[in-house]
Every structure is written in C-alpha cells, then in structure tokens.
Description:
The structure holds two protein chains of two kinds. Chain A is α/β, with parallel strands linked by helices. Chain A has a nine-stranded mixed beta sheet, with helices on both faces. A five-stranded parallel beta sheet of chain A has the order 4-3-5-6-7. Chain B is mostly helical. Chain B has four helices and no strands. Chain B starts with a helix and ends with a helix. Chains A and B meet through helix 9 and helix 14 of A and helix 3 of B.
Amino acid sequence: MTIALSEICTLSNFVSQAATCWSDRLALVEGEVRLTWADLDKLSNQVASLLLRKGIPKGARVGLAGAKSARIIAAVHGILKAGCVCVPIDASSPAARMNVILEDCAPAAIFGAADILSQLAVSSSPLKIAVDKPTEDAVEWQEIVSAPAARVEVPTERSDLAYLLYTSGSTGQPKGVMLSHGNVGAFAVWAAEEFRLRAEDRVASIAPLHFDLSTFDLYSTAWSGAALHIPPGLFLSFPVKLTDWLANHKITAMYTVPSLLATIAERGDIKARGLDHLRLMLFAGEVCPPKVLSTLLDLLPAAEFANLYGPTETNVCTFERIDREQWDRVSPISIGLACQGTRLLLIDPEGAPVEGTGRAGELWVSGPTVALGYWNDPARNARFVERNGSRWYSTGDYAEFDESGRLVFHGRRDHMVKVHGHRVELGEVESALLRHSAIAEAAVVIVDGKLFAFARTSHGQRPTQNELREYCAGQLPRYMVPSEVVVLESMPYGSTGKIDRLELARMVKHG
Amino acid sequence: MDDIEQTVIDYLRSRALQNSTARALDGSSRLMEMGILDSLELMSLVTHMEQFYGFTLPDGEFVPENFETPGSIADLIRRVRTGAP
C-alpha cells in the first residue's frame, strides 16, 4: 500500500469526492432511509449552507447531541464543509455532564434531538438545530432541506481542527482531545487501504460518534465508497437482534469494542445466522479476552480479524492482524506493529529509550495521527513531548516488543481503566463522589470489568449506597456509575500513606 | 404478583439509579422507557437471574419483548425454568 499522506485531502471533501466517484451507490442506510453518495453530498451541503447563512464562522465548535442517525451523520459532514469543528457528545450522559463539556468548548451551534436540546444550558447561547422534531427556540430540519444545495467548501487545511472528542479526565473534568483533518484522514485512509475496503462493502455503524472508532465508519467508507448501515440503537443491547440485523443487511465489515464481540460470541447464536458476508472484524478500545476471539474465529471461519490499538490522542497507531495459523488461542493478543507513518518508542522511568526485546517501557507515539493536544488545557498538553525534532505523545501505556518485533501491551501507569470499551479515569468517579457533602474520602477500583467505590463519610453522616449511586448518576455517564458503593469507617492505607487500592480490590474479590 | 416477579422488582430497585424511579417500579413498569435497563444493566440482570434461578437463557429468548416489564421478565423466567431439564 502506498498512499502518500501528503496527498490526503481534508475531511471536508471526502463526501464530495465520494459523490463524484460513486454518485448513485448507497452511502447510508438507516431503517427506511437510504441515501446515495450524491444525496449525502447534497444534504451535507445544505447543512453547511445553513451554518454559513447563520453566520457561524470557520473554526467554530458545533455540538452534536442525539442518537446516531442519517441526519446526524449528514450534519457531521456539513459541519466540516463549513470549516467548523465537530463536538459529538454522549447524549446518554446526564445533562450536567453535557453542559460541562459544552461550557468548555463554547459551541456556536448544536445539532441534536429536541428533547436533549431542551435540557442544555450553555452560556455561549448556541444556535440550536433540532434533527428529529420541531421544538421551541430551535431551527427545524425542514429549514435545512428546503434551502438550495449549492456546493459549499470553506477552504480548510489538514492542520485545521476537525473534531473535539471528550474523554474522561482524572481531575473530574472531561478533557477534549483535538483532532485535525489530517489526524482523522490519515487513520481513515490507512484503515481503508490496509483492510481493502471497497465500494461493495457494507459497514455496520456500531460505535457512537463521540468514540474515535466512529471515524472509520464515516471516513474510511467515504474514501472507498462503501455503504454505512446504522442499526436501531436498541439492537446493540440484544445480541440476537444485532446478529439478525447483521445477517439481514449482509454486513461485510465492522469495527467495535471486544465487549460487544463477547456478547455476540456468547449470546448472538451466530451459528444459526451464518453471517457469511462478514469478512472483516476490527476491534479496539480494550484488551480482548483470548477466549472471545477464539470463539469468534470458529464461528466466522472465513473472516479476517485485526486488533487495533491507540488512545484517542493517537487514534490507531498499531495493529495486529490475527494469524489463524500462528496464534495459539490462549496467549494475550499482541497489539502488533506500527501503522504506516507511525513511529514508536518505549521509554524507561529515567526517560531513556528501552532497547531490545522483552523489556517494558512507556509507549510513546509519533506520526500523522497524533492529536494537536487538549482543548483549553495547557497543563495536560505536557503529555505531548518534543524529542529529537519530532512530536510524541506519551501514552501512559506500558508495553514491550516480543521476539517478532510486535508490541505486547502490559497495562497502565495510572488510574485509567476501561469499562466495556469506555475510557474511565477513576479520578473522575472519585471526584463525583467527593462532591457529596457527606463524603470525606473516596477510592474506586475495577474488578472483573465493574467499578466498585469505597467511601469514608464525614462524622455522623451515613448516606445509603442507593443515594450515592444516584448522586453519581446525576454527574456521570451510566458506565461510570459504580456498581456498588461501600461506606467504610476508615480506608486501608499502604506504607506510603496512600489509599491501598490492592487491598480494596481484595475486599471486593472476597466479598 | 408472585415471588419471581417480586424478586425481579427487588433486584431492579436495588440497581435503579434514581430513588424516585425505584419507588415507582411495579410489575407493569416499562423498563426501557423509564431508563432502568440499558445494555450494561440488561446484561447484569440476565447474568444475575441465570445464577439465581440456575438456568441458561436460550439466545433466542434474549429479545426486547421479554424485557419490557418486570412482569414479562418473570414470565420469561417461569417459561425457561419449566423448559429446563
């Protein structure tokens, strides 16, 4: 594969190029809605025209808050054509958290479901556009589609900001990762070429838009002319509904988290459905249990599988194509080799590069997918480091090279964990608990994929577990709310005076 | 209301993230619309009930219509348990 990264256009013209090459081929399928690339190009031009008419300037942030739909995806492409920055937010999280994010990025406009828009209170007074039904104080979708569809492309550079993706922040404040057109484009084109995505492919859109996995769904498809199929949101909770849908839509490729793979492997009755069309399964976001992958290799004997690795700050930077002959089905799945144009370093605690195989170090990444930094957060930008004339992101992940030169993931240096593929800073959950007036001290641990919180209360106060979980649910997305909150008289401390998290994890395991 | 339905309601009450919804919960509460069951909670519920009642839910029974209300979940458990060897 030889695509010079300098040849990659900006994301804002992916759709118009697709419309030139594959005008009448399907681009988007959602329920009864079927849009060709020409339709999607036209609709996104109409979105961009609206933003320009309303005076939204280049570089303005534009929020997206609603279930994924053909309209929301058209809005994403339109926002980029208008030279604006997409900020997809998790619409299933409480309004308080959505408002914290919107306050941080100060959007000039927000596209969303009417019921969600009405809950948002943002001091930048953004223009609201309701994508599903008319509502007070919001532009109706009808106004977009009744306007002319002249081609709109505000000139953008590959270094211009395209996305802010908010992830959990250890201090309690979500942080916005700044991805440029070049960052996202480099990944999308690499993935489309590496895995030979073609116009004949039908890709399932599983990841939510605030998750970097969704950039494959939107832009790798546009690069190759493949169709993107959006399943009903409810089906993601019901394995056989999802596998039925995958079969009915003859899906050929999907990119998701191992947690979802586990549910369809264990409960999706794939054998009865065949899924013979599925030729490509990409997964990322968390460590995939070998058992899950092994089951799927048997259930889908003809499909190609690949493990993709990278935090949001680097999108995908390494990958491992699963070799059915070589992998022994029990060893941890390697995170593989660097993607095209990416360089990797392992750094020891003294800051020196780790040489050779079998020795772990912190993984540093340099290359076209490394993000521009964090929005509004100079302190955290220290994670982006200059070294020998290149810009590197220090991931906080530990890894080593094995004898074949592939990377093996070891774990984190801090308290960032994964819950069903969602990135969670334990500090953000602890901060939420500590805002409660009765809580003096809090620590959260993860055991078997579930969050357990321990809290010491102030003298004389005794909130119930339900009260504390409800309190967290008012501030945090559902997946960050601890499964259990245990109120303790005193916390266990280690020899350094820090809370002994290993002891807390032991307490969970021994009931 | 029988024991199974009460067990389901008690479990969902213990998991509900809002006391007001937990209190309002009864055999005919629409669980998805009330936001009580999302994909994570659904999986926890199924695993818990399988362990508690000692059955394995057939894949084909893991469908939205069986999880609409505590009543429909109790019906499901009764049906699956009877069918179990």
